[in-house]
Amino acid sequence: MKKLMKSQTNKTICGICAGFANYYNVDPVLVKAIYAAATIITGFIPGIIAYLVLAVIIPYEQ
Predict the structure, then answer these.
(1) What is the mean pLDDT of residues 45-54?
(2) pLDDT-above-90 percentage for the chain
(3) Both ends of the chain: CA-CA distance in Å?
(4) Angle (nearest 5°) at CA 17 between 32 and 6
(5) What is the mean pLDDT of the chain?
(6) 55-60 long-range contacts, Cβ below 8 Å, gap at least 24?
(7) Residue 57 to residues 4, 6, 30, 44, 51: CA-CA distances in angstroms?
(8) Predicted confidence (pLDDT) per residue in 11-30, tens digit
(9) pTM higher than 0.70 for the full model?
(10) Residue 62: is its pLDDT beyond 90?
(11) φ and ψ at 59, to 5 degrees?
């Protein structure tokens, strides 16, 4: 069973986007671009809050 984990090797800030990319087997740049676009469209604050919550909840990979 796959688990969602933050990436320790391919991270920019906390590794959240790279973790999602590893989980869904897609390019991390694509996930980061989608996250950036969604954050800009929603007015920055919801995207930043979501990232901070995920950074606290999702554990690092072993």
Answers:
(1) 97
(2) 95
(3) 15
(4) 165
(5) 96
(6) 55/6, 55/13, 55/14, 55/16, 58/4, 58/5, 58/6, 58/16, 58/19, 59/5, 59/6, 60/5, 60/6, 60/8, 60/15
(7) 10, 10, 22, 20, 10
(8) 999 999 999 999 999 999 99
(9) yes
(10) no
(11) -80, 160
Q: Which two tokens stand for residue 45?
A: 């604050």
In this prediction, residue 53 carries a pLDDT of 98
* CB-based contacts of 26-34 (< 8 A; 24+ apart in sequence): none
What's at 2, amino acid-wise?
Answer: K
Give per-residue burial for 5-25: e unless 16+ CB within 10 Å, then b. bbbeeeeeebbbbbbbbbeee
For residue 9, what is the DSSP state?
Answer: S
